[in-house]
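Lecture 7, part B: from sequences to assemblies.

Below are the input chains for today's worked example.
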Amino acid sequence: MNIEMIRQAASRLDGYARRTPLLNSAFLDDIAGRRVWIKPECLQHTGSFKFRGAWAALSAMDEAARQRGVLAYSSGNHAQGVALAAARHGASAVIVMPSDAPALKIENTKALGAEVVLYDRSRRSEREKLGTAIAEERGLTLVKPFDEPQVIAGQGSTGLEIAEQAAEIGVKKADVLVCCGGGGFTSGIALAVEADAPGLRVRPVEPENFDDMARSLQSGQIERNAKTSGSLCDAIITPSPGQITFPIIQRLCGPGIVVSEDEAMKAVAHAFLRLKLVAEPGGAVALAAALWHQDALEGDDVIVTISGGNVDSDVFARALESP
Amino acid sequence: MNIEMIRQAASRLDGYARRTPLLNSAFLDDIAGRRVWIKPECLQHTGSFKFRGAWAALSAMDEAARQRGVLAYSSGNHAQGVALAAARHGASAVIVMPSDAPALKIENTKALGAEVVLYDRSRRSEREKLGTAIAEERGLTLVKPFDEPQVIAGQGSTGLEIAEQAAEIGVKKADVLVCCGGGGFTSGIALAVEADAPGLRVRPVEPENFDDMARSLQSGQIERNAKTSGSLCDAIITPSPGQITFPIIQRLCGPGIVVSEDEAMKAVAHAFLRLKLVAEPGGAVALAAALWHQDALEGDDVIVTISGGNVDSDVFARALESP
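Predicted structure of the full complex, as structure tokens:
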């Protein structure tokens, strides 16, 4: 896993992934007590950064394997990313999703042409059995959601853009807050800014009860979450950091930040109000950290990823009611 | 009013207004039966294209007049645009707003540092009296919302970007649907694409009961609306086309398109779902036309402006419930 892989992935993504803008709002700066710069990956194809990693993985496969098709496990954003990347490559995709994933994510994955197989999230072991059986039977290649070098390389392309955009606005030193599940997005961005903007420091942000990365960084070894479901931040509730992602994050990132679910919902409302963006709760944890955990941060500027916007309308409407 | 004024305004806006991206979604293409390209001015500073015109006007004023301050009449988006442009120029702004304007727009205008004076929309004549008295007393310069060359020039900068972005994606011929109130945005974009992308044709889009532009284009003379309030599309309910904007639109634009308020609300829901954008109802009428008035359009591509995203959360939540 190195910066060259990220640069190569970025060049394969050129013309296929969106280069998302860097946005800001004086209203958010006032709350945060520093300048807040938003990298809205909710505007990426399929509504999350996951399309980058999926495209990077699919475009790196050899043609024969790609033609046999791919398989992915996902609660929704990786699912949609893989489904669209596969469809655009003329490949078939099977996505194994928990049955309690947001309805919108399941629907979209199907609409993007993938075959969706549902499993009960509380019986996680079934998932692997199910997926492995299908993959073996059809000769499918597994596209892992985060602990996979090509996927990390694709997500890292976001970091190359952040480095360029930070230079354009004259920001040389800042924390970069990244919504963190298994660490693919976080480690990819960390590697990219290490190379292209060494004054930026990545900080993983997680929701309460799913702070495996923050605890792992503290203890120095991979820690697991007690729960595997039951958060509105469904996009980023993975059981533990990855074997590949964790050492990268340990080497390059500052301490993790943990926000409450209420703060994530309030951040969704602020993204609506001040940025005119639709963020999902899991995609808004970094914004929540910038706005309400300012003592955990350093410097006059903070860069914030909004990792996704695939939220059911009832959850979104509830977020707008949050004070 | 000519293309040179637009180019000059664009260069004064460089570094101050956002160059908004061009977005798309396969889901929207499917509904529309053609490729739909979205120009999201809801992502512009203050949440609408109005910042462009306001900045163009303020930056064109002579310093002494600017220091005395400016005055504007607006239901909200022009208000915020003028408030921010004035604040950034170190000038004071008085904004005369109808008391039934969305609460969010009134609040934001105040938060941006402007002095807000409210009037009763049903007694429109009061508005001019009020504004004129304040302007005379304090020596303020009126910044008109649309029938003003510098304002049209600023809005036209959007059209220069559309022309460039259409060329980048290889679109040479398409209708460009513009959310239309008094016609500043529409006429500015029409002049810009006439010069830089003559295969593009602008079409004004309005909500039912406020279709003064469509009727004026049909009759060949300036027509007025019977009503002056009572639409969720508050951003674009002006009494009649402007004296400057109408002849430009008459010369350059195709026939107007009229959408229902229900269609505008449904378009808000689709922008949420498929683009992760917050559009206000008046800002979503062009998208509604692309999705549900496809017989009125020509060609394989359509370019759609989303003109603003300043919507109160209760209206937005209601839009998300629309089927």
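Note for the exam: The longest helix of chain B spans residues 149-168. Keep this in mind when comparing with the next example.
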